[in-house]
């Protein structure tokens, strides 16, 4: 396929995980259908990506520096796109945060919102005008089931991902008038560097001593629950990339794609039982299973 016919894709957060896998898959496309601009905030981390493509894809891959929290860095990356436009924008960069809310420092909470929310918004701002004027484009955003339903000890992360849902849904309503599609790829747990990179209050951390015993014990249950979920049901990035491809290749992309059916019952519960309580009780049972058993035993 000639350069002129290739779809131009720009992806944020390609140093690892989902962004890296997606960049490698698209740059290695057998039909050479894509020209990929894989962006990352720290170019010193580009070796992993370059090793994954084994130097084979010089004509389909470029690596650019882009920190989504730095407006001038976003604009610089955009202006380096040789084709002068992006057909497919993937807002993927994100960070996690876990721990009792009362222990989170304001600066840390802000930094999560800076990347996940403001970083995504300012990336969208940089690329939307050109897509609008060309009456063409597809925006994909790596969403999270933590943006569809709340999770204990994840208030700030969920707030950032809920906010992304609202921003994307609002944009999708407008952009359909411009033939620009918006798709959220809703992921549950995925085997990436996310857990390692996640800022969290460790179980042995002395800051936990300031908390009441029930919160401490619930946090311990939740951490065990998360550990077992990531060990047993986390998806590999290849599965996530398949869902991205389905969305990218669709002539009429959906607004939401779920990478696994595991989230469906909770999402349905939330949207059909409008007072919200059934969902909150259910997620409590799932995330604090030990405490459920103990309180049942107490009642016997
Ligand atoms: N893994 C999961 O379980 C899971 C579940 C649901 C949703 N997600 C979402 O999936 C997306 C990708 O995460 P992942 O699982 O692939 O984790 P990951 O391996 O930690 O990748 C996150 C990427 O975001 C980048 N990033 C962080 N801050 C950035 C910034 N200011 N500017 C540009 N890039 C930045 C990281 O770069 P550095 O290497 O420089 O830090 C890294 O490349 C995130 O939006 C996350 O919320 C993940």
Automatic annotation (TrEMBL):
Superkingdom of origin organism: Eukaryota
Amino-acid positions noted as binding NADP(+) in the UniProt annotation, renumbered to this chain: 13-41, 67, 161
Any single Pfam family the record assigns to this protein: adh_short
Species per Swiss-Prot/TrEMBL record: Mugilogobius chulae (yellowstripe goby)
The keyword Flavoprotein belongs to this UniProt entry's keyword annotation: no
Database matches in PANTHER family: 17-BETA-HYDROXYSTEROID DEHYDROGENASE TYPE 1 (PTHR43391:SF15), RETINOL DEHYDROGENASE-RELATED (PTHR43391)
Family from the record: Belongs to the short-chain dehydrogenases/reductases (SDR) family.
Annotated protein name in UniProt: 17-beta-estradiol 17-dehydrogenase
């Amino acid at each position: 396929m000639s350069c002129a016919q290739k779809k131009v894709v720009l992806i944020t957060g390609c140093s690892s995980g989902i962004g890296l896998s997606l960049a490698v898959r698209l740059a290695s496309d057998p039909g050479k259908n894509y020209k990929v601009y894989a962006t990352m905030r720290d170019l010193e981390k580009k070796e992993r990506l370059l090793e994954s493509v084994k130097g084979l894809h010089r004509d389909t891959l470029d690596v650019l520096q882009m920190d989504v929290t730095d407006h001038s860095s976003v604009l610089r990356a955009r202006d380096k796109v040789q084709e002068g436009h992006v057909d497919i924008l993937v807002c993927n960069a994100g960070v996690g945060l876990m721990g009792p809310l009362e222990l989170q420092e304001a600066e840390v909470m802000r930094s999560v919102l800076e990347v996940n929310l403001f970083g995504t918004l300012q990336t969208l701002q940089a690329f939307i005008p050109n897509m609008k004027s060309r009456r063409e484009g597809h925006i994909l955003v790596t969403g999270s089931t933590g943006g569809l339903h709340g999770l204990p000890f994840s208030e700030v992360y969920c707030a950032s991902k809920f906010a992304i849902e609202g921003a994307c849904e609002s944009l999708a309503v407008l952009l359909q008038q411009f033939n620009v599609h918006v798709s959220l790829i809703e992921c549950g747990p995925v085997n990436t560097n996310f857990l390692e990179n996640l800022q969290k209050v460790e179980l042995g951390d002395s800051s936990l001593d300031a908390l009441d015993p029930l919160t401490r014990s619930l946090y311990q249950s939740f951490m065990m629950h998360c550990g077992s979920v990531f060990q047993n049901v986390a998806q590999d990035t290849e599965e996530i990339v398949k869902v991205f491809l389905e969305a990218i290749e669709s002539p009429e992309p959906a607004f939401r794609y779920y990478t696994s059916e595991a989230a469906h019952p909770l999402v349905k519960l939330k949207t059909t039982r409008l007072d919200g309580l059934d969902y909150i009780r259910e997620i409590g049972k799932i995330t604090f299973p030990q405490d459920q058993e103990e309180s049942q035993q107490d009642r016997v």
